[in-house]
Amino acid sequence: MGDSSDDEYLGTEWIPYSERAEWADIAPLAQDDGPNPVVSIAYSQKFREVFDFMRAIIAKGEKSQRALDLTTDALRLNPANYTVWQYRRDILRELKADLNVELDYLSEVIGQNSKNYQVWHHRRVIVEMLDDASNELELTENALINDGDAKNYHAWQHRQWAIRTFNLYDSELSFVDRLIGEDQRNNSAWNQRFFVIKHLGFNPNLVDQELIYAMNRIRIIKNNESAWNYLVGVIRQSPYGNGLLNNHPAVVEFAEELYQAGNRSPYLMAFLIDLYQEQTMQNECSDREQKARKVYDICDDMASKHDVIRRKYWQYVANHLKDQLNKSSEKANQ
């Protein structure tokens, strides 16, 4: 980190620790890179001095207010330093510090480093120490919406942890619906919806509700992989009929109508391939040959037109079904 960046973080009026009377008792401990470092990093003087004093404090085992302030300077320079975050937690415990003040500090740090794992981990530990997650939904909402990154993995991970640990599910579906409405291809929001539905339990009424929700979204954007994945995921978790695609006639009718209307979304076609394969292999299937032919035709279209990059996979799917039907026929003739 160059001097200009250090000035931005620590201020142009920053006084070196070696010139501060209150730090005169501490001998800075330089970083030991060995006699022949593979890569010698050109640390700025400020960076080097802060971390030399940080190493000295850790070696001494000092846990004081000045040590806490030093960690603040160190983390401004390198907010991803795990050792400093860990030592900061040790100091907070030793001083019995006001952890709500620490949460305010972390809100500021997260606002500037919203994709930094160490910051989020520290936040989780502090929330656990307080046993209070009342601020976490607002914090993560700000990270996801106000910071303009609705797919921030760390924010979603923290949000799920807070919801699961402190049972904060009540308004989550409304929040997720809002995000999906803003960006229907936001796979993170669809994943969050599945996370909530899984907690609520895949009872028949809820499954039907979510299938209707997904189908309505697909009607708006036919080629939406996120919505199709959600639709299939809910069906697979269905409590009745082992979640087979064929056991949801409204969804089957929906998919077939889209296809007959000329839609050739690869996600729709993959859905129909799975559907017709299941129908073909059912013992009571009366039009097995016709269903199998649909699988072969759609697989051929996928391989040659709509999903060429996976053409070998779709050829394999068709050939695998042929092999299964041949074995089934041989077994029936024995």
UniProtKB/TrEMBL annotation:
Highest taxon of source: Eukaryota
Coiled-coil regions listed in the entry: none
GO molecular function: CAAX-protein geranylgeranyltransferase activity; protein farnesyltransferase activity
Keywords: Magnesium, Prenyltransferase, Repeat, Transferase
Cofactor(s), names only, from the UniProt record: Mg(2+)
EC id: 2.5.1.58, 2.5.1.59
GO cellular component term of the entry, any: CAAX-protein geranylgeranyltransferase complex
The keyword Transferase belongs to this UniProt entry's keyword annotation: yes
Family of the protein in this entry: Belongs to the protein prenyltransferase subunit alpha family.
PANTHER family documented for this protein: PROTEIN FARNESYLTRANSFERASE ALPHA SUBUNIT/RAB GERANYLGERANYL TRANSFERASE ALPHA SUBUNIT (PTHR11129), PROTEIN FARNESYLTRANSFERASE_GERANYLGERANYLTRANSFERASE TYPE-1 SUBUNIT ALPHA (PTHR11129:SF1)
Protein name: Protein farnesyltransferase/geranylgeranyltransferase type-1 subunit alpha
Species of origin: Drosophila persimilis
